[in-house]
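Technical annex, item 7. During the second reporting period the consortium partners agreed on a shared format for inverse folding records so that results from different sites could be compared directly. Each record opens with the tokenized structure and is followed by the designed sequence. A conforming record, contributed by the partner at site C, is shown below for reference.
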């Protein structure tokens, strides 16, 4: 017999961050630069956290640390995969590579354009890797390029010659074509025109409704006002002069 104690199932946790800290050792200056200290928060399926703070407060560094481009100095980032919990702060590189392919997406304003790969092929690649047949993946890719306003003449062209905004649209189409469980967004709307921004926010709303958890920095937070569940404010860490004496060589 099934006994239901609550009418609404509570949302499944995706990420629990505890005491996460990151600093950069500036060896040439014999100084330590504190990017962020003792960050903690929880994120459930379908939730959207807006990351705020002034220039240099550590927003991009926090996102990169969660994506494990950087190792944190201290703390944990417990990520709930479909199979179990893994600490992103300590996981093996092979596990991180697998998560990046299947579950955790990172969107910046910069396209890492590879030479001599066509725009539609770049966008279709995540679907191809997930096993979608080529023709189907390409047609889906073109649908997304169109949705973000990339002209059809550019679909078979190499993005290395595209304008900054066009490159960003290719980047977004690629990053958002396959729903991830966790999406890290670092100013994805910078240099996008209004209609592309609208297409992006529409897609983010769709992903959120399907359960994707997101943490994002937005140049125009009003674009995503309807999606925000919580805000995290990163404070710029001012270093006292005597901190130099604490530098680890
Ligand atoms: N690889 C690095 N090596 C050394 N210092 C770094 C590195 N990356 C970032 N920093 C420093 O860490 C601090 C936080 O940088 P970060 O890029 O995270 O800021 P941000 O909040 O994203 O700022 P912005 O709003 O300008 O994008 C800055 O003082 C920056 O100079
Ligand atoms: Mg930044």
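Designed sequence (site C submission):
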């Amino acid at each position: 017999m099934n006994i239901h104690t609550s009418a609404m199932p509570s949302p499944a946790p995706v990420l629990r961050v505890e005491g996460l800290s990151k600093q950069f050792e500036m060896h040439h200056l014999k100084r330590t630069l504190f990017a962020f200290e003792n960050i903690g928060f929880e994120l459930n399926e379908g939730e959207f956290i807006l990351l705020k703070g002034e220039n240099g407060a550590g927003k991009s560094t926090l996102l990169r640390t969660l994506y494990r481009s950087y190792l944190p100095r201290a703390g944990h980032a417990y990520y709930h995969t479909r199979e179990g919990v893994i600490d992103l702060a300590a996981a093996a590189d092979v596990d991180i590579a697998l998560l990046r392919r299947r579950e955790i997406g990172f969107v910046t304003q910069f396209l890492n354009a590879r030479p001599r790969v066509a725009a539609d092929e770049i966008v279709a690649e995540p679907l191809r890797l997930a096993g979608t047949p080529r023709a189907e993946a390409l047609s889906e890719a073109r649908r997304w390029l169109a949705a973000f306003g990339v002209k059809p003449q550019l679909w078979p062209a190499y993005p290395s010659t595209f304008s900054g905004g066009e490159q960003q649209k290719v980047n977004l189409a690629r990053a958002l074509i396959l729903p991830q469980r966790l999406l890290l967004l670092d100013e994805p709307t910078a240099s996008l025109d209004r209609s592309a921004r609208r297409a992006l926010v529409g897609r983010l709303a769709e992903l959120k409704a399907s359960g994707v958890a997101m943490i994002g920095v937005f140049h125009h937070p009003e674009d995503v006002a309807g999606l925000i569940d919580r805000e995290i404010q990163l404070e710029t860490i001012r270093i006292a002069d005597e901190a130099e004496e604490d530098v680890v060589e």
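The chain has six helices and nine strands. Helices lie at 59-66, 93-102, 119-129, 134-147, 164-176, 194-209. All partners now use this format for quarterly exchanges.
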